[in-house]
């Protein structure tokens, strides 16, 4: 038996020290276990880290094609419209002028160059055959058709179709904060066009951009670009077609006028017209180059197809194809993103401009103000039967199928 003196020697201080030692040992064990687990996890992650490398959805690593400015497909004036537009039902025939498919941008043939008068009935058929033959002039199978329709032959080129006219309204955001609505006025009859973009910004006033021009063998051909930012004066860029020069009011410098040259906003509609003409040609990774002028300079803009995405609007979700301007030079942090919606006739449903300092200006489609027809009449009461959500601007002629 233990003596009373031994029992008395175990004091509360001894017990406290014993408990502290036990606690330290216990936490030391826990810490060792945690460090061991982390070490094992680190070794495993080192062996499998390639699995966790993120793939940015905004930059496709494989470039499918690099497209440069090309002539658009043209057809002599007076030739019949594309085959699908000829046998149209009465309801669609009434709306055909709004289609604006550009197959005629050249003067018609002179009288002595026309087909013999003894064959008026077969001329449309022969011209249609020539349309298909021109894109494969070296083919023996199409040689006869090309010969028969030589009086109204077509010139091969990229497909091009101007979007339908309309006044669109957009929600505007400045660094994510909603502001007053902005507008895009777009009008074209297939021979000329007008585009006016208005974006109200807090404290600085309304930014407006206007592009006016015509259509030539390379698509949209701006004649004048006018930019006004808030209370500042207008900066005007003029495209002198006679002297092949681009002039500015902001600087005395001039630039040579290149084929297919665009301004900052006609470029959007030039892209829309090309995509609308041949949607299947613009798959993810395909990059098209545009020569774009600002209010004092010009440069090549590489526009890459990112892919099909859904854009959320106040009217619901709309399918669109996303395009992004790639960096023009090393260190270029300014970025422009455009989403074109097939249900809106490939008009833009969303635009985002990101400045080098991170400032973002965004436009998101919110509906139609008015959509004039070919005669300039308001068709806001026009009944369309597009899928939900029903967009306010449609392409009632024959618009391209949704990709």
Automatic annotation (TrEMBL):
Segments passing through the bilayer: 25-45
**Regions of compositional bias (Low complexity) in chain numbering:** 85-94, 114-155
- Record's Pfam families? DUF3108
InterPro entries hit by this protein: DUF3108
Q: Which key words are in the record? A: Membrane, Transmembrane, Transmembrane helix
- Specify where the region named Disordered lies, as residue ranges: 75-162, 365-403
Q: Which domain of life is it from?
A: Bacteria
Q: What is this protein called?
A: DUF3108 domain-containing protein
